[in-house]
Amino acid sequence: MIPVCEPVLDGRELKYVTECLETNWISSAGKYISLFEEKFSAYVGMPYGIACTNCTTALHMAMVAMNIGSGDEVIIPDFTLIVSANTVIQTGAKPVLVDVDPRTWCIDAQRIEERITPRTKAIMVVHMYGHPCDMEAIVKIAAKHNLYVIEDCAQAHGAEVNGKKAGSFGDASCFSFYGNKILTTGEGGMVLCRDRGLAEKMQLLRNQGFTEPRFVHDVVAFNYRMTNVQAAIGVAQTEMVEEKIAAKRRIGETYNELLANAKDLTLPYEEPWAKNVYWMYGILVGDGFGLSKDDLMKKLREKGVDTRSFFCPMSIQPVFMNGNNPAYPDVSVNNPVSVDLWNRGLYLPSGLGLTRAQMEEVATKLMECHTS
User: Fold this and answer.
1) Which tens digit of pLDDT belongs to each residue from 325-337?
2) Which band of pLDDT confidence, cut at 50, 70 and 90, is reported for residue 372?
């Protein structure tokens, strides 16, 4: 079976982790945590980094630090992982759903303003499958309406907008280092920001609100700490970030070449202003292909090729359609692009260790499904 993704640990991960074990610095203190924060934030171009347990807690912590809560609204894309909606709801605020661009699969900047109300506090964007959102337009909208911008960069390490890194536009940018991400620590995340006060607040929130004297607390906070062992892996991964981004780009370009003449498939798009890092190589199955998305995925699995479906939009999630929580998003919205992506979208094996021979096999077996 050719897997969708596997982590590649081809740097100094073992050396740095061994040092943690040999020195007993294995918990949430140790030199690698601050080193990882410094190296990764510098790579993206943001002054502050706060390492944490995952991107979910990064998003939640950022919104809490921004005082987003009950009575507020946060604009999110309809087509996204449910984390976007869940973290907003966990603050007490309400997610407001906006459809996505049919080419980039990212939130449609031209549709954001129509969803802004007096209760809107922030715009949360999600850089989808490696392609960045139209951040220049989104930042202008946010400035016009005095809104925070939160970038979910879980899938977009190294993506760029006109030469500027995704994650360097917003008030806070949140990254995932899960095992299938371009940079991985197994599990892990980080929030980047440019405001010192916001950074200090998130550092406090991450660590149960501990200050001096210890065990006397002024805020309700969380245990969102990353371990030194995870951070050691992150430092080694960050040292290899340019090579990993280049490898992802090569995978995307190779699939583009192999599938250039494929009928009834829509391949990933790259805006002229964008650098797509092809975190996952997604395709849309056309009506003329002869198989539905689900049937194609089943057939490919029988042929030894693993795939994953695109995300299910928030507007058709049973938990929100059947629930009566006032913080749940309004699912009566009409977001046809998001629904269409769910109905037709899947992604192919895209791991950093993928070889050209494997990609050729994937492409061949994909097209065999078309003609069978």
Assistant:
1) 999 999 999 999 9
2) low
Question: Nearest Cα to 339, choosing from 148, 10, 78, 82?
Answer: 78
Helices (H), strands (E): how many in the chain?
12, 14
CB atoms within 10 A of CB 287: 8
Known catalytic residue: 15? no
Residue 113 has pLDDT above 80, yes or no: yes
Asked whether residue 253 carries a pLDDT value surpassing 90, the answer given is yes
Strands (E), 21-159: 48-52, 73-77, 94-98, 120-126, 148-152
Q: What is the mean pLDDT of the chain?
A: 97
Q: How far apart are CA 75 and CA 84, in angstroms?
A: 10
Sheet holding 308-309, edge to edge: 265-266, 281-285, 345-348, 308-309
What domains lie within the chain, and their CATH numbers? 13-98+106-239 (3.40.640.10), 241-371 (3.90.1150.10)
Tokens of 295: 């049937």
Q: What share of the chain is helix, strand, coil (3-state, %, to 5)?
A: 40, 20, 40
> Residue 244: what pLDDT?
98
H/E stretch holding 153 reads none
What would the pLDDT profile of 35-89 be if each residue is shown by its tens digit?
A: 999 999 999 999 999 999 999 999 999 999 999 999 999 999 999 999 999 999 9
- Interacting residues of 10 by C-beta distance below 8 A, sequence separation 6+: 240
CB-neighbour burial class of residue 232 (10 A; exposed 0-12, middle 13-18, buried 19+): buried
CA distance 62 to 70: 15
**Rounded to the nearest 10 degrees, how much is the dihedral formed by the CA atoms of 187, 88, 134, 182?**
10
Q: Which of 345, 160, 176, 182 is nearest to 279 (CA)?
A: 182
* Active-site option among 39, 94, 181, 201: 181
